[in-house]
Amino acid sequence: xxxxxxxxxxxxxxxxxxxxxxxxxxxxxxxxxxxxxxxxxxxxxxxxxxxxxxxxxxxxxxxxxxxxxxxxxxxxxxxxxxxxxxxxxxxxxxxxxxxxxxxxxxxxxxxxxxxxxxxxxxxxxxxxxxxxxxxxxxxxxxxxxxxxxxxxxxxxxxxxxxxxxxxxxxxxxxxxxxxxxxxxxxxxxxxxxxxxxxxxxxxxxxxxxxxxxxxxxxxxxxxxxxxxxxxxxxxxxxxxxxxxxxxxxxxxxxxxxxxxxxxxxxxx
Length: 268
Ligand SMILES: O=C(O)CCC(=O)C(=O)O
Ligand SMILES: [Fe+2]
Fold this sequence. Notes:
Blueprint: H1 5-13, H2 26-39, E1 41-44, H3 50-63, E2 68-74, E3 95-102, H4 112-118, H5 120-130, E4 145-150, E5 156-159, E6 166-172, E7 176-177, E8 180-183, H6 196-203, E9 210-212, E10 219-222, E11 228-231, E12 234-235, E13 240-245, H7 257-264
Antiparallel strand pairs: 1-10, 2-3, 3-4, 4-13, 5-11, 6-10, 6-13, 7-12, 8-9, 8-11
Helix pairs in contact: 2-5
The protein binds 2-oxoglutaric acid (AKG) and fe (ii) ion.
Fe (ii) ion binds at residues 159, 161, 224, 229.
């Protein structure tokens, strides 16, 4: 049976608050595009409906025992150390990240996250906002949708992303901590300007940054390649749970083997 656009929209409407966020309305898409171009991020509170959040909390709680946990020391540039610089140089200074992760293949086919991720309406919306022609899933079976778990004292250290944009959905908020903090346009990769002085000042606690306060169900679209960001250590006994929806602007792309081993502990 062919499912028509109206039926698809109806099924997405039980997951996403389409009354508040008309994803196929070009004026709305442009408004979000202007906001990501000007501020580096788009934040849409109450994007997910309450019922969907409840379901996602339940399924991610059940899945938490399958998460791969890693604690890593890495530089803010997420690159291996460069011997050309001393060990206390901004390029080689270490921050710590610790979190659990479940991968796309561990998420049920009928999960709201998969319905959302695969929906043309949602995908075209994201493509319109980030100015991509079309967006594609990862061709490996691990990287498209990930769920991150941060329990007490776990955190993500300051870093720049490799990908040009990220889509996240907060599923469960920690009682304290677990805050997303960032400084917009902190480096300029296009001009190979790494801002070593700024990174040193930030790691020495000398700079101010923005704090993104959000509740479960919030969609964040973030340009993290040039905007440095972190998630502060979680405090309290409620795990911070966040879904990351990752797309590519080209088909048939897999996440690199090094990244898959680092983040998932396996290749497939
Ligand atoms: O947990 C978050 O809110 C951000 C995650 C993040 O920065 C990343 O996965 O690179
Ligand atoms: Fe990031």
